[in-house]
Design a protein that fits this description.
It is a single chain. With 252 residues, this protein is an all-alpha fold. The chain contains 8 helices and no strands. The longest helix is centred in the first third of the chain and has 50 residues. Helix 1 runs parallel beside helix 3 and helix 3 packs antiparallel against helix 4. It has 2 domains: 106 residues; 120 residues. It is elongated, with a radius of gyration of 26 Å.
Amino acid sequence: MASNGVGGRYGRGYSRLLRLYPEAFRERFGSGMTQTFQDLCREQSADGRGLFGLVLWIYLETAVGIVRENTTHMSEMRKTVVRVALGALAMLMVPLVASQVVEGWNWPPGAFVFTYVLFFATGMAYVLIARRMGAWSYKAGVGVALVAGFALGWSNMVHVADSENPANLIYFSVLAVGVVGAGLARLEARGLARTLFAMAAILALISVLLPSGAPPYLARNMAIGHGVYVALFTASGLLFRRASALSMPGQL
């Protein structure tokens, strides 16, 4: 097919039409569909026949495919949202049941709503981020990072509420580093590895420099908890580094 004139206009129009496909479909099949379109138009032109009828048929067929693929994509997303919502509801049963059997557990209704939103948001974050890369190490890194971040934020929120010590809010700086780092890294594995290592280092520094003022047995438990979180963030960083190496085989 000629790269200019009528054929060129048809080709540019077809390229714009392909943009209406879901991104995953377009990345997988877009270049092949474009090449097929060009080959068909080139053959039609070589036979001395006009392109209008062929192009109209391809455009119509492609438009039907676009509707079908977007409908399928939307259906899959709705199913994903429903699964995550049900999973978050199942997890909510743990504090809900505990509030009935544990003495002194008196959450107001708003606390359960807030907890459900956190569960749902964490689940959706995993689904949307983990599917960016097929490597198991990337998916595992996302899971470990989200679980550790959720647990750290949750435990710190409860601890602040119980102790009324604003100094403990410094732990949220670890989560802030994670959010900012993930944004700057654009969720790429190498940048996420650096972000998780930074989170582990900052948390280790906080655990050393921030005086607990707690009795020895509580201080020991806090040190163990800090060590667990540091290990989880570090493990997540190693998983992301592994995913980065897999995406660039020369670095294995």
